[in-house]
Amino acid sequence: MVTVxxxxxxxxxxxxxxxxxxxxxxxxATFNLNPGRHRLERYQGGKHKxxxxxxxSVHDVKALYRxxxxxxxxxxVTHPHLERSSPGALEWELAESRKILEDWFQTxxxxxxxxxxxxxxxxxxxxxxxxYAYARTVAxxxxxxxxxxxxxxxxxxxxxxxxxxPAFERAKAANGVFYFWGHSYEILDEPMWQAFEANxxxxxxxxxxxxxxxxxxx
Length: 218
Known about the structure:
CATH superfamily: Glycoside hydrolase/deacetylase
CATH class: Alpha Beta
Largest sheet: 6 strands, parallel
Strand content: 15-25%
Order of helices and strands: EHEEEHEHEHEEHEHEH
Number of helices: 7
CATH topology: TIM Barrel
Shape: globular
CATH architecture: Alpha-Beta Barrel
Radius of gyration: 16 Å
């Protein structure tokens, strides 16, 4: 058996299609959100390789990430480099993001993903002080769970990494955890979406796969 978990960052419009696929195939996922970056209306927040990246509205966020199999986790309020933040700003980014998300979804928020994947001992200590259960990095490791330090919860591989299936097979052979992550705006075109759905369908069809959200592992 292998436990499969996935997480996606930033709360953007492409997540609408992603959530549809997750529900279609019966998977689970964790979504890491920055509540301070959502407004009353959708807006273009930038571009990635020519692809427009649109931030969801507050209404969109509240509607999209509800339901069985979906975990909402914090990604800070405004997506700064936390290791560069003052103590007061760091405390606010971690506490206020969770407070807002818990108000929006009426459920405990125990997970965190580091903006830009960057952190230091001060950031980890503040996460512990505030009672977070884990914090996800962007490193790639074979032995995902249990992490030596829950505040350095390393995934197996990026969702679009060519090593995706070899990493899965290594986790499966070890009866371990396979953890992939990404941003849905990185899925740039229809062939990439079809390839991603094929991967998701293949995972869900495997009788030795058990799905979990990030927090369910803890």
